[in-house]
Amino acid sequence: LIVAVIGLLVNLAGAWVLWSGNKGDANLRGAFLHVIGDLLGSVGAIAAAVGIMLTGWTILDPLLSVLVAVLVVRSAWGLVTDSITVLMQAVPRGIKARSVETGLAALTEISEAGHFHAWTLTDDTIVATIHVTPAENTDPLSLPQLVAGWLKERYAIDHVTVQVDPPGSLVKAEGSNT
Length: 178
What we know:
The protein is α+β, with helices and mostly antiparallel strands.
């Protein structure tokens, strides 16, 4: 019981320190969840010890241990899925290639947009690539900055590689089998 109380106090201090850190950082979130798991383990051990002393029900210890384990797994699930998204470089939620291409093609400076790909590089970094063709009388050199700004504003994409293609090339490329 004394060791569990000491553990509880140490874990409370650790949780307080980690809580003040960057909440978007997966490593800090993982460390925080680990400390919270330990903290819950200490609370469970104290509750089980007191419950056993008062009632003699030794089953309390494994029951509370299972409850703590379920709570830890449930709270860590979001971190696991976010980490898988980064590791698999998955398309971020809320980004649909066709919608992005259609939106860009609707800009007056762009006649065609296609081959859009976006993925999660880190916890807070989304990167993308896209092909665009300039509309008539549009300076092709202005398109990368225009497209990057548009994607940053609408989809929070941090880095985009824009390939400017000659007019008509995207239609041919998407319709061909090569």
